[in-house]
DNA sequence: AACGTGACTTATT
DNA sequence: GAATAAGCCACGT
C-alpha cells in the first residue's frame, strides 16, 4: 500500500535509525537514506530530521559524509553540538569535524528489500 | 500542476 | 585538490 503513508514510513525509519545511534557515535545522511530504502535521498533525510526537531532524536549525532556538523544551522549552535558530541566521547578534528574513522556508525537494515547498485 | 528550495552525495571541470 | 554541475527525494508556495 504505497500510499501517502509511504512518506510517513520514510520519516519513521529515519527517526528510528537516528534514535538507535549509540552514544559517542555518529552517522551520515547517506547511510540513513540507504537504510531507509533510498540511498540517493540524503537530502530528504535532512528534511525528516527537520520535522524531528521536535522529537527526541539526537540530531547532533547525524553529520554529513565529511563528518561536518552541517545541521548546526537548524539545530541552533554548532558549538552546542560540539560540546554534546564531545561529552559523549566523540573526537573532533582541527576543523571542528567528527573523527569519522573512529566514530562513524552505520545503521543496519532490518528486513527492507533494498536494491543495492554498487557499480562504479 | 509546476517551480523552487533544502540539515546531501557523487561526478566532472 | 578545489570549485562547479547535476542528481536525488520530499515539502512549500
Notes on the structure:
- With 120 residues, this protein is mostly helical.
- The chain has one domain: Orthogonal Bundle (Arc Repressor Mutant, subunit A).
- The protein has 6 helices and 2 strands.
- Helix 1 crosses helix 2 (29-36), helix 1 packs across helix 3 and helix 2 packs across helix 3 (42-52).
- The longest helix is centred in the N-terminal third of the chain and has 15 residues, at 5-19.
- The chain is globular and about 35 Å long.
- The N and C termini lie far apart (33 Å).
- The model is unreliable at 112-120 (pLDDT under 50).
- The protein binds a DNA duplex (13 and 13 nucleotides) through helix 1, helix 2, helix 3, strand 2 and helix 4.
Keywords:
single chain, 120 residues, mainly alpha, Arc Repressor Mutant, subunit A, two-stranded parallel ribbon, 6 helices, disordered C terminus, DNA-binding
Major sheet characteristics: 2 strands, parallel
CATH architecture, by name, is: Orthogonal Bundle
Low-pLDDT windows of residues: 112-120
Number of strands: 2
Total count of domains? 1
What percent of residues are in strands?
under 5%
Amino acid at each position: 500500500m504505497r500510499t501517502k503513508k509511504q512518506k510517513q514510513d520514510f520519516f519513521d525509519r529515519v527517526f528510528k535509525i537516528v534514535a538507535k545511534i549509540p552514544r559517542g557515535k555518529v552517522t551520515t545522511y547517506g547511510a540513513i537514506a540507504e537504510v531507509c530504502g533510498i540511498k540517493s535521498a540524503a537530502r530528504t533525510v535532512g528534511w525528516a530530521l527537520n520535522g524531528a526537531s521536535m522529537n527526541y532524536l539526537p540530531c547532533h549525532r547525524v553529520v554529513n559524509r565529511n563528518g561536518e556538523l552541517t545541521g548546526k544551522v537548524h539545530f541552533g549552535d554548532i558549538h552546542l553540538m560540539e560540546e554534546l558530541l564531545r561529552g559523549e566521547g566523540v573526537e573532533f578534528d582541527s576543523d571542528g569535524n567528527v573523527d569519522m574513522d573512529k566514530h562513524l556508525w552505520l545503521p543496519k537494515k532490518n528486513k527492507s528489500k533494498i536494491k543495492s547498485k554498487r557499480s562504479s
